[in-house]
Design brief:
2 helices; 40S ribosomal protein S4; five-stranded antiparallel β-sheet; alpha+beta; Structural Genomics Hypothetical 15.5 Kd Protein In mrcA-pckA Intergenic Region, Chain A; Ribosomal_eS4
């Protein structure tokens, strides 16, 4: 039994002025390539550029500024801000920088690099007794050669 004419219009026959959900990034690419989008006051044309917590997103053509913050549910949300507020960044992550390195030579004469925070020196000799081999870790090949040399000298 028919229930009357169907009122659904297929997407193919939809007028051009309808705002349909687009799955492509063509609009995003066009806007970014026109250099309208600034992230932290730098023009970004990469559509996959990552934005993070407290980043300022500015659109010069519309004179809008947004700050990327967390909402109450812990999701990222855009918060409208004034141009004066967009001039500074509230949160900035800084890397600790390069670590100071030290080159150390062990009792066998092998030299290796380590961080300065891992090393401390008091005097010219160890204050505790060192285990067999003076605390030096030998590779498997070095252990084998040492065993063979001991076996040949004793036998």
């Amino acid at each position: 039994m028919a229930h009357g004419p169907k009122k659904h219009l297929k997407c193919v026959a939809a007028p051009k002025h309808w705002m349909l959900d687009k799955l492509t990034g063509d609009e995003v690419k066009k806007i970014c390539m026109q250099r309208f989008i600034k992230i932290d006051d730098k023009v970004r044309t990469d559509i996959t550029y990552p934005t993070g917590f407290m980043d300022v997103i500015s659109i010069d053509k519309t004179a809008e500024n947004f700050r990327l913050i967390y909402d109450t549910k812990g999701h990222f949300a855009l918060h409208c801000i004034t141009p004066e507020e967009a001039k500074y960044k509230l949160c900035k992550r800084e890397a600790p920088g390069s670590l100071d390195g030290v080159h150390v030579k062990d009792a066998n004469g092998n030299s290796f690099a380590s961080q300065l925070s891992n090393i401390f020196v008091k005097g010219n000799k160890p204050w505790i007794s060192l285990p067999h081999g003076k605390g030096i870790h030998l590779t498997i090949a070095e252990e084998r050669d040492k065993r063979l040399a001991a076996k040949q000298s004793s036998g």
